[in-house]
Design brief:
By secondary structure, the protein is mainly β. The chain has two domains: 121 residues, Hexapeptide repeat proteins (UDP N-Acetylglucosamine Acyltransferase, domain 1); 105 residues, 3 Solenoid (UDP N-Acetylglucosamine Acyltransferase, domain 1). 0% of the residues lie in helices and 30% in strands. It has no helices and 33 strands. The strands form four sheets. It has a twelve-stranded mixed sheet with strand order 3-6-9-12-15-18-21-24-27-30-32-33, with no helix packed on it.
Length: 250
């Protein structure tokens, strides 16, 4: 079987590794893992127990930096960590200094940039992009083609529908004043975003807030409030039956 496993790698028991995979120095892989074909796991990465990694996945990738990039890549980025019982689909890229909790499903073609922390039991859908310096709690759903901009914070039990777009730069990369205002979105626990909605930089969706499909959020969304339109405005309160407090046991 054609593959490269560095002599320093620590392999648990009952680990299956596919063709053409490359596992670099000081990687640790737990018990009962299934690693597909053409997988690359960069140096120092830690993979928990019972993790499934499908074909063509890259874990622990270092970021690139253009001469025009605002922020330069640190030289001391730590290896990636993948928690127990995670499932990682084909062609996923997870960068270095990511901490992925337990029992996460990360679907095909998703990208998770450096300096991202992801809690437990999240669903990251197909072709989702999560940019750098993002903090995410547990039990969230990010649906197909949604985009989470850098410097965002997301609580627990949030929902992000397909093709949601978020932003962190009000100056669109011209005025140097922008350096003082970079901020992603904040989703407090239980907040939800409908399909094809747009959330502008620095906006806060308070607990149990709902952004309707196609809305453009230009100001913070109050708790337990549904907003609609462009610019998004309050429509009505979230029904009691839809509140997080009434659904956590379902």
């Amino acid at each position: 079987m054609n593959k490269h496993i560095d002599s320093s790698v620590k392999l648990g028991t009952n680990v299956t590794i596919g063709y053409n995979s490359v596992i670099m120095e000081n990687v640790e892989i737990g018990n009962d893992c299934l690693i597909g074909h053409n997988v690359v796991i960069h140096a120092g990465s830690k993979i928990g127990n019972a993790v499934r990694i499908d074909d063509n996945v890259i874990i622990g990738k270092k970021p690139l930096s253009s001469p025009r990039s605002i922020f330069k890549v640190p030289t001391d980025l730590k290896p990636a960590i993948i928690g127990d019982f995670c499932q990682i689909g084909a062609n996923v890229v997870i960068y270095c200094q990511c901490e992925i909790g337990e029992r996460n499903l990360i679907a095909d073609l998703a990208t998770i940039r450096e300096n991202v922390s992801l809690g437990d039991l999240n669903i990251v859908g197909r072709n989702v992009s999560i940019e750098n310096f993002v903090k995410i709690g547990s039990c969230n759903k990010f649906e197909t083609n949604s985009y989470i901009t850098a410097y965002s914070e997301i609580g627990d039990y949030c929902f992000v529908a397909p093709c949601t777009a978020t932003s962190n730069d009000n100056f669109m990369a011209r005025d140097k004043e922008r350096f003082n205002h970079f901020k992603g979105i904040t989703m407090e626990s239980g907040s939800r975003i409908g399909v094809n909605a747009t959330i502008l930089p620095g906006k806060v969706l308070h607990s149990d807030a709902v952004v309707a499909a196609g809305a453009v959020v230009t100001r913070d969304v109050p708790a337990k409030t549904i907003v609609v339109g462009n610019p998004a405005k309050a429509f009505r309160e979230v029904p009691e039956t839809q509140l997080m407090e009434n659904n956590l046991d379902k």
